[in-house]
Specification:
Elements (H helix, E strand, L loop, with lengths): L1 E3 L2 E6 L2 E6 L3 E3 L14 H7 L8 E5 L2 E5 L1 H12 L3 H4 L5 H17 L1
Antiparallel strand pairs: 1-4, 2-3, 5-6
Length: 110
Amino acid sequence: MHLLNQWCIMSAVGYSLLLEVSDMIFNTAKVMSKGQITLPVDIRKSMGLSVGDRVVLVYENNRVIMINPAIYAMEVLQDKMEGEWERAGIHSEEDLLMMVAEVRSKRKAK
């Protein structure tokens, strides 16, 4: 396991690239006959993963990105909700509290 906080030299096919990295964990995993890998313990701990947990795998630009599904779901929701506050007329915390109070009073009236 390599936890890098400053600079890293990546080498591939005879080319070297100097990258600035912060708090990245570099490790390897071997692909077994059924396509399974064992995630290194430092990565499991960093992601808060336990036995039986699921992960989201995203293949993009010749890379696989592994994401904790709860975090991924929150990121997708945030992207979908972009600008919704403004469209709903919510411009401050007071506007939000007034809307919540209005919804609650309508529910009580039913």
